[in-house]
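Bumping my old thread because nobody answered last time. Still need a sequence for this structure:
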């Protein structure tokens, strides 16, 4: 019997189709692919972590992370599954029953509409009954950005987490503060001046001394390149500069620190009442200098669960709360700076820092969470003794809205004094 031979010629449409089919597995590698799953998400996206060994703080454990879209969404029931490693993260929060996690995917993925990245945080917000304080603080700071004036803060999304089949409650899937978030380019060993990032990890970082006590170096990689000179020089100037030197146009503080950013950061701390975020729990970042430009430091906020009427341990804070540190006190000694500070406050009170805007953000987050806070409270009911009172989600949200209205009115009077 004669069989007709079928020959695929190079360059033909058939040839191209075969090549594409053969390459599909390679083209798909590293890309998040949504597929149907038997696992369920309710009102919020669900994250299923399947760890292959015990999760610890001092090592990365292999796991699989699956993100399942919630009912009612356009991709309801679809899931993105990735290989990853996971560890417990945090400092004092490691002592809480509900743990926070750092997850590193095998390749970058753009999860839940956030920018593509490999490294993510699952923040437990254990001490925050409202579950939204971190998100509120970071969203507020980003809302202050304008063209040419970025305000970097972590993006986040509410999710519900399951670990090895056990429900863990409501979390925030969050970005890291890192070179990726800040838009820093790759580190080049030969550069004379590097991009740098430092985290204020304890109260020694309150600008009350020279050196870098209280800070941790994040960029460049401290194991490869200890790089304290930029921060040491900033702290030394803050301590030793005379008043005229401090405000000098050419080599004063404005040449070393982005003053518009500093004002916005200070106002964020004041508005949110972040008593634990003025002498610690923030980042200082400085980009690699552009051609002919002098690099300046800028603030990036961090750790906002103790805000809006609550302290880091969830104890109540009063609304008549003024927060500052040595750097901001020195800045406020300058009449020109005070004038800029007051003008920015009045501008932001029209919209971004209005009672209507902030209470609206609180209500929007509560609507997004829907019934999830009840499931979270039920999961952690046995840990209720860790809290200083018995405030639930609805009561905490109501207290936040009342506190911000009273607090903003008090700040109006305090800032109007110009001191």
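Sorry it took so long. Here it is:
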């Amino acid at each position: 019997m004669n069989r007709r031979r079928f020959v695929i010629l190079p360059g033909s449409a058939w040839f191209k189709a075969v090549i594409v089919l053969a390459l599909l597995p390679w083209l798909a590698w590293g890309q998040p692919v949504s597929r149907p799953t038997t696992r369920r998400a309710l009102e919020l996206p669900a994250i299923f972590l399947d760890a292959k060994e015990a999760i610890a703080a001092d090592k990365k454990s292999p796991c699989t992370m699956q993100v399942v879209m919630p009912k009612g969404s356009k991709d309801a029931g679809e899931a993105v599954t990735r290989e990853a490693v996971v560890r417990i993260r945090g400092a004092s929060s490691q002592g809480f029953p509900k743990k926070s996690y750092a997850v590193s995917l095998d390749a970058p993925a753009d999860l839940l509409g956030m920018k593509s990245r490999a490294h993510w945080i699952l923040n437990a917000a254990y001490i925050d009954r409202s579950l939204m304080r971190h998100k509120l603080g970071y969203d507020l700071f980003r809302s202050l950005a304008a063209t040419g004036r970025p305000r970097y803060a972590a993006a986040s999304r509410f999710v519900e987490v399951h670990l090895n089949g056990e429900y863990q409650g409501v979390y925030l899937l969050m970005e890291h503060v890192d070179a990726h978030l800040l838009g820093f380019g790759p580190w080049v060993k030969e550069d004379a001046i590097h991009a740098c990032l430092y985290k204020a990890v304890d109260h020694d970082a309150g600008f009350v001394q020279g050196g870098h006590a209280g800070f941790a170096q994040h960029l460049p990689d401290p194991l490869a390149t200890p790089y304290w000179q930029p921060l040491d020089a900033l702290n030394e100037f803050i301590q030793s500069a005379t008043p005229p030197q401090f405000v000098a146009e050419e080599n004063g503080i404005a040449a070393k620190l982005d003053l518009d950013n500093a004002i916005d950061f200070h106002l964020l701390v004041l508005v949110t009442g972040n008593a634990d975020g003025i002498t610690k729990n923030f980042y200082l970042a400085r980009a690699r200098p552009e051609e002919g430009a002098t690099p300046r430091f800028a603030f990036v906020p961090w750790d906002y669960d103790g805000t809006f009427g609550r302290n880091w341990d969830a104890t109540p804070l009063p609304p008549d709360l003024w927060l500052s540190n040595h750097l901001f006190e020195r800045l406020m000694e300058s009449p020109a700076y005070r004038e800029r500070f007051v003008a920015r406050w009045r501008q932001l009170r029209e919209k971004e820092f209005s009672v209507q805007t902030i209470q609206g953000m609180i209500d929007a987050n509560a609507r997004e969470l829907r019934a999830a806070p009840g499931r979270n409270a039920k999961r952690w009911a046995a840990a209720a003794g860790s809290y200083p009172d018995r405030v639930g989600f609805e009561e905490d949200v109501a207290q936040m809205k009342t506190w911000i209205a009273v607090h903003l009115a008090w700040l109006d009077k305090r800032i109007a004094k110009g001191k």
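Residues 1-8, 14-31 have pLDDT under 50 and may be disordered. Let me know if any region looks off to you.
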